[in-house]
Amino acid sequence: MSNYTIDYANCTLCEECIEACPFDAIEIVDDKVEINAACKACGICVDTCPEGVIQPVEDEREAVNKDEYSDVLVFAEQLEGEIHPVTYELMGKGRELADKIDQELHVILLGHNLTDQTDEILAHGADKVYVYDQEELHHYNVQPYATAIEDCIKRTKPTIVLIGATSIGRSLAPRVATRFRTGLTADCTILDVRENTDLVQTRPAFGGNIMARILTTRHRPQMATMRYKVMEPIPRVENPTGEVVEFSVSKEKLETRAKICEITKKPDVESIEDADVIVAVGRGIREEKDLEMAQELADLLGGKLGTTRPLIEKGWTEHKQQIGLSGRTVRPELIITLGISGAVQFVAGMKNSENIFAVNNDPEANIFDVAHYGVVGDLYEVLPRLIEKIKNGENILAS
């Protein structure tokens, strides 16, 4: 649909708009000027038309009253009494946003027997914790959880809602957004807020080749999900002053056709996201058997082996080891990258690591732009020497 209307009765087909358009979005079809999908709504054609026959379409969509919405609401994800660490990262960013617009940080907690979890959230500085402590919410079920969050949003009218981009968050957030006919920006890497409370949501797009900035200017609440290990967690406070507000939803509204008959726990597997040390390998590894050297280095450092997407596509490593936009986001104390060029898709998943040690034979490789330490050389020469130095008890960063 075009952003402009054209008064064909008074159009003289002078073609000045065609010459002025920088996007080649205007053409003559069947003796009529038409604006095609290449239009970027820059307005140059409106200013150029000597007859004034091109006019912008009036936007008749109804906008909400932003003054009716306030505060930042964070969804506290918990499983069997354990608060997911992404909650505290969301609270850290939520506090930053709330302070910028002089509003409060609120948290919603769903489950059963939640006293300890509530105390922990208050200890991290939440101004209010909305608690839905009901037996029907003991186990995660997307429909009842979405209903409870919908109820909380209707009661409190937050201007911003933040949810973790976990397996639970990715199923829950879009359902809540749909119920309010509002936007949802997934996997944000940067969040900021304007004075008018518009949330500036930034996320990678087109495979990480651009960073898209997204705003929800006409609707509230504004919703975004953020990956684990992207933001700084909120610190504990000495004298918490927040309050607990107990809400509930009727059992009838929490009913669902899906019934939990039995729960089989998934085996505990250490995630690469929680590793303090990671050795990451990329295209520079020539053969699958050579991964054993990288694994040996990881074992010596008490770390995990990570990888880039090309090695997964070859079938050499598992997807759970992938770092990057289509894999995991990590934030270890030390990451050693071997034969990785530093494509934006990979860097986006590890750039916040405390110490980045890069090995690549190309001095112009992008990985050196984010690395704190770098070695220009063949990993097949450097890696054995690193292993030897560590076995000898030497400090690899000092040498």
UniProtKB/TrEMBL annotation:
<dbReference type="GO" id="GO:0050660">
    <property type="term" value="F:flavin adenine dinucleotide binding"/>
</dbReference>
<dbReference type="InterPro" id="IPR014730">
    <property type="entry name" value="ETF_a/b_N"/>
</dbReference>
<dbReference type="Pfam" id="PF01012">
    <property type="entry name" value="ETF"/>
</dbReference>
<dbReference type="InterPro" id="IPR029035">
    <property type="entry name" value="DHS-like_NAD/FAD-binding_dom"/>
</dbReference>
<feature type="binding site">
    <location>
        <position position="283"/>
    </location>
    <ligand>
        <name>FAD</name>
    </ligand>
</feature>
<dbReference type="Pfam" id="PF13187">
    <property type="entry name" value="Fer4_9"/>
</dbReference>
<dbReference type="GO" id="GO:0009055">
    <property type="term" value="F:electron transfer activity"/>
</dbReference>
<feature type="domain" description="4Fe-4S ferredoxin-type">
    <location>
        <begin position="32"/>
        <end position="59"/>
    </location>
</feature>
<keyword id="KW-0408">Iron</keyword>
<dbReference type="GO" id="GO:0046872">
    <property type="term" value="F:metal ion binding"/>
</dbReference>
<keyword id="KW-0285">Flavoprotein</keyword>
<protein>
    <submittedName>
        <fullName>Electron transfer flavoprotein alpha/beta-subunit</fullName>
    </submittedName>
</protein>
<feature type="binding site">
    <location>
        <position position="360"/>
    </location>
    <ligand>
        <name>FAD</name>
    </ligand>
</feature>
<dbReference type="InterPro" id="IPR033947">
    <property type="entry name" value="ETF_alpha_N"/>
</dbReference>
<feature type="domain" description="4Fe-4S ferredoxin-type">
    <location>
        <begin position="2"/>
        <end position="31"/>
    </location>
</feature>
<feature type="binding site">
    <location>
        <begin position="322"/>
        <end position="326"/>
    </location>
    <ligand>
        <name>FAD</name>
    </ligand>
</feature>
<dbReference type="Pfam" id="PF00766">
    <property type="entry name" value="ETF_alpha"/>
</dbReference>
<keyword id="KW-0479">Metal-binding</keyword>
<dbReference type="InterPro" id="IPR001308">
    <property type="entry name" value="ETF_a/FixB"/>
</dbReference>
<dbReference type="InterPro" id="IPR017900">
    <property type="entry name" value="4Fe4S_Fe_S_CS"/>
</dbReference>
<dbReference type="InterPro" id="IPR014731">
    <property type="entry name" value="ETF_asu_C"/>
</dbReference>
<comment type="similarity">
    <text>Belongs to the ETF alpha-subunit/FixB family.</text>
</comment>
<dbReference type="InterPro" id="IPR017896">
    <property type="entry name" value="4Fe4S_Fe-S-bd"/>
</dbReference>
<dbReference type="InterPro" id="IPR014729">
    <property type="entry name" value="Rossmann-like_a/b/a_fold"/>
</dbReference>
<keyword id="KW-0274">FAD</keyword>
<dbReference type="GO" id="GO:0051536">
    <property type="term" value="F:iron-sulfur cluster binding"/>
</dbReference>
<feature type="binding site">
    <location>
        <begin position="308"/>
        <end position="309"/>
    </location>
    <ligand>
        <name>FAD</name>
    </ligand>
</feature>
<keyword id="KW-0411">Iron-sulfur</keyword>
<dbReference type="GO" id="GO:0033539">
    <property type="term" value="P:fatty acid beta-oxidation using acyl-CoA dehydrogenase"/>
</dbReference>
